[in-house]
Amino acid sequence: MRRPLSVTKVALFLVGAMGIHAASQGAWAQFCSDDNCSENCGISVDISNPACLAGEAGRKSIALHGTGFLGAYLVHSPDNHCGCQIDCTKIPGAGAPTCINISGKATSESYRFQLTTCYENAGGPGIGNNCPINPTSP
């Protein structure tokens, strides 16, 4: 006897299928050691993933590739676990350059991407620096 698929199983399948499609249409970034995205570029990371990218100290550029990218922000952190935000790089969407130079930004050891603003006020000035003045303080 054949049992019909439950609504829940069908819904989960559709959500999973859409997630795979969205990821394949997304944008990816590689952190590189030089200013023009040509030396020692790391593995590609999904810009829509907000996880902390540790161990990227000394990176000077980001190579972008993919399709359907709407823009994002790169949050710079001085520690190796994205503990606070010391700087921010706006990455434009459509028409974005394929290489973004971040060598003039604050010295950072970890990064994370986010899709909402990382400025002090949405659309306003400032980088939203929320790091303590003395990072060794408890």
Summarize the structure.
The chain has 138 residues and is of the alpha+beta class. It has one helix at 7-24, and strands at residues 27-32, 45-46, 53-54, 61-66, 72-77, 87-91, 99-101, 110-114.
Task: Report on the architecture of this protein.
- With 138 residues, the chain is of the alpha+beta class.
- 13% of the residues lie in helices and 25% in strands.
- A 4-stranded antiparallel beta sheet has the order 2-1-4-7, with no helix packed on it. A 4-stranded antiparallel beta sheet has the order 3-8-5-6, with no helix packed on it.
- The longest helix has 18 residues.
- It is globular.
Oligomer: single chain
Radius of gyration (Å) = 18 Å
Strand content: 25-35%
What is the CA-CA span between the terminal residues?
65 Å
Q: Compute the average pLDDT.
A: 75
Biggest sheet features: 4 strands, antiparallel
> Given the C-alpha coordinates, what overall shape results?
globular
The secondary-structure element order is HEEEEEEEE
The overall strand count is: 8
Strand order of the largest sheet: 2-1-4-7
What's the helix count? 1
Helix content: 10-25%
Low-confidence stretches: 5-24
Structural class: alpha+beta
